[in-house]
Design a protein that fits this description.
The protein is mainly α and 117 residues long. The protein folds into two domains: 7-70, Arc Repressor Mutant, subunit A (Orthogonal Bundle); 79-110. It is built from five helices and two strands, in the order αααββαα. It has helices at residues 7-20, 33-40, 44-56, 79-93, 98-110; strands at residues 60-63, 67-70. It has a two-stranded antiparallel sheet with strand order 1-2. The longest helix has 15 residues, at 79-93. It is elongated. The termini are far apart. The mean pLDDT is 85.
Length: 117
Amino acid sequence: MDGKLNVFENIVAELKSLMRVGALKNGDKLPSVRAYAVDRKVNPNTVAKAYAILEEEGYIRVLPKKGAYVACEDGEADSELTEVKEQIALWRSAGIAEEKIVKAVQEIYQSEEVKSV
């Protein structure tokens, strides 16, 4: 591991690298936090932090009680989807009701002509 990075940053970099070279593919299950921590001789909180970062960036999906899975194609996170989710979270925190957001999305996709924004 690179001494210049924190341990969790090394884990993030290593997993991203494995995704880029195809050793980890979309849908592959990652080791549990505990198993990864034992294997690498690190604190489970460190692995949990790395997994949280990877999930936030769209590289993995963590399903409660089921584990963590690779959620990107060819080692690239779905950054467009991440941006959409971030925008929706902003609208939600601004008090816009879910029904209004869903209705707006449906109107856009049901319109015959897609207009550039």
